[in-house]
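pasting Octanoyltransferase for the record, 244 residues
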Amino acid sequence: MTIQDLAAPRLHTATDRFRPLAGSPPVDWLVINGLTPYPEALEAMETRVGAIAEGTAREAVFLVEHPPLYTAGTGSKEADLLDSRFPVFPAGRGGQYTYHGPGQRVAYVLLDLKRRRQDVRAFVAALEAWIIATLAEFQVTGERREDRVGVWVRRPERSPTPDGSIAEDKIAAIGIRVRRWVTFHGISLNVDPDLDHFSGIVPCGIRGHGVTSLADLGIVVSMPEVDALLRRNFEAVFGETRDS
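structre below
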């Protein structure tokens, strides 16, 4: 990626295909039941990323739910932690403060970009495309924004923003880290979390916009149903998976 590429508008990078080299093994797909403590998930990611980089483990996606907590990315600002009502964990990923909790599907995506495309911006665009395609299965229109990573939903039924534009809420956040060209951390999709729990932070450092969920949009769906659609749309973007 060149300096010119980095300076180009973010939305100029869009991809709905981020597949591995021909002959690559499928991605391990692991759904972890119950609430996973954040330090446990972080340790599992660290271990697996090291093994993927060494060529001794397959790429993987870990699907988890966490107990209520906040994570602080490398760009976090103290002023954006409004109420430390839940434990706060340094995450080591990019981005700022994020909430995780029950009813939110967190997908940790551990992929080897050397087998795919050594382009972090394209990888983030592929994650956004994956989420948008999954939301479309529920007739929800998710959108990307130039100045805001993640996936957003327009809320025309609400009062417009101070500049007169249509109100928007974030339904899915993205925060990643790359080590030795292996990705970790990933996405969080709000299925039916307690949205009040987000009020303890300025989510991702973005003021003036809210957060939403499938349930908040009137879509009642189980986590296994969401997982099935996440998997189907992941395979369309990133390639074959296998149960792990």
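Residues 1-7 have pLDDT under 50 and may be disordered.
The chain is about 25% helix and 30% strand.
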